[in-house]
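**Paired protein data**
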Amino acid sequence: MSHSDPTPPPATTGDLDTLPGVNFEPVLALLGGDRAMLAELLGEFAAQYANLPTETASALATGDIDNLARQMHGLKGTAANLGLEALSRQAATLEAALRQGQSPAEAVAALAACLDTLLPALRAASGQANE
């Protein structure tokens, strides 16, 4: 739903709405429809989790499974709260694999693929909101 309004906020997350596995409607309802605020929150999220693939690999290499499982639990909740449903599911899958002592390789690859698609889009959306 494009508006002719000259301010950037309505367009900031519009492209993100087409990404698979995102649902911003509940988040926008909580934010009173404030897409600029959503874009800002998504930008903060992207910055916070920018190094997650490296941190995940490092934690696996050093055997820091408990900490990584806690990190995935936090990611799962934060992503869900922001409408990043696919990412939340991937974090939940990795958390479960870690807690159950299963090989995390497939879940790590799926999480990384999700992040590779999502993080650049989130950064772009927040950059547009700040221009």
Remarks:
- The helical segments are 9-12, 25-30, 35-48, 52-62, 65-81, 85-99, 105-129.
